[in-house]
Write a structure and sequence with these properties.
Strand 10, helix 4 and strand 11 form a beta-alpha-beta unit. The protein contains 6 helices and 18 strands. Helix 1 runs parallel beside helix 2, helix 1 packs parallel to helix 6 and helix 4 runs parallel beside helix 5. It is α/β, with parallel strands linked by helices. The radius of gyration is 21 Å and the shape is elongated. It binds NADP nicotinamide-adenine-dinucleotide phosphate.
């Protein structure tokens, strides 16, 4: 079993920041990442709200985070974490390739896009239904594209998809967007975007690929068929918080609740970024969380060693 001071689960901006601080504090630190460091920003076209970078490609910012952490001694290992367990004062991680032991664990596992849960959604995923505009948008050049949702992700990705689509419908269940005003304005000013208010997607239809969606007006109950070549649901997020073999306090949405040290209800287990309950899910929040958790873990380990 490999033993460390600190293990970080997840190599997003929060995890890489925690790794940078922890390795720089000379704690024996590893970050376990299942796919590719960078988290969601690795799949974000442009980041315009990370201070110091007016506009930077997501994958470029992700690479900078990674290189910076590695420079200060962070080891990144590719492994898929299945369970976190307790063994006395030690915290144990069971992953696909190995078992790991640490004094403290920082969980930055992010989450998954929330599904609409309507007929045809799963069947047409990869055949016109996609949850990543940057990955799949270019497949729908000159097609009519539908986006579901009204938050920052739906509106920002809707704007991005106008690069490819002949038209982009943004279908929102209310008549007011949740997205930030500055993002809303950009969408309202974009001639390719048409909003469909008070409506939800009811069904995805097609043959080999998606051909249309049925949408329901939640005020009138009326159902309308909308011919589209793609559907991008951006209706929120489900945190990846189901990896504990013991009781960790979460809210009703599955977000982990922490204190001001980013510690969960269990000593030596910290949660950072999108998996944790907090007001915003911004890169800046994840970075702040990573910093706090790494510093808190350092102090905890100092006391642990006494
Ligand atoms: P979000 O802010 O939770 O918005 C989800 C949207 O989907 C809401 O408009 C919600 O409607 C709608 N919705 C939820 N469940 C639905 C359902 N079953 N059917 C239809 N519509 C449904 O999620 P997000 O847009 O993914 O953003 C997540 C976080 O990431 C936010 O904190 C956001 O600020 C952040 N983010 C930031 C940026 C940026 O700043 N550049 C970009 C992307 C994301 P209601 O409004 O009616 O609840």
């Amino acid at each position: 079993m490999k033993e460390y001071d600190v293990i970080i689960v997840g190599g997003g901006p929060g995890g890489l920041t925690a790794g940078m601080y922890s390795a720089r504090a000379e704690l024996n630190t590893i970050c376990l990442e299942k796919l590719m460091p960078g988290g969601q920003i690795a799949n974000t076209e442009l980041v315009e709200d990370y201070p110091g970078f007016e506009s930077i490609a997501g994958h470029e910012l992700a690479k900078k985070f990674e290189n910076h952490a590695i420079k200060f001694g962070l080891n990144i290992e590719y492994d898929n974490v299945q369970k976190i367990k307790l063994d006395g004062r030690y915290r144990i991680i069971e992953a696909d390739n190995d078992t790991y032991k640490a004094k403290a664990i920082i969980v930055g596992t992010g989450g998954q896009p929330r599904l609409l849960g309507v007929p045809g959604e799963k069947e047409y995923t990869g055949k016109g239904v996609s949850y990543c505009a940057i990955c799949d948008g270019a497949f729908f050049k000159d097609r009519v594209i539908a986006v579901a949702g009204g938050g920052d992700a739906a509106v920002e990705e809707g704007i991005f998809l106008t690069k490819f689509g002949s038209k982009v419908y943004i279908i929102h269940r209310r008549d007011q967007l949740r997205a930030q005003k500055v993002i809303q304005k950009r969408a309202f000013d974009n001639p390719k975007i048409e909003f469909i208010w008070d409506s939800v997607v009811e069904k995805v239809n097609g043959s080999d690929t998606i051909e249309s969606i049925d949408i329901k007006n939640v005020k009138t109950g009326g159902i309308k068929n909308l011919p589209v070549g793609a559907l991008f649901p951006f209706i929120g997020f489900t945190p990846n918080s189901d990896i504990f073999d013991f009781e960790v306090t979460k809210d009703e949405g599955g977000y982990i609740i922490t204190n001001e040290y980013n510690q969960t209800n269990v000593e030596g287990i910290y949660a950072i970024g999108d998996v944790r309950k907090q007001l915003c899910k911004q890169i800046t929040n994840a970075v702040g969380d990573g910093t706090t958790a790494a510093v808190a873990a350092d102090k905890y380990i100092e006391a642990w060693n006494d």
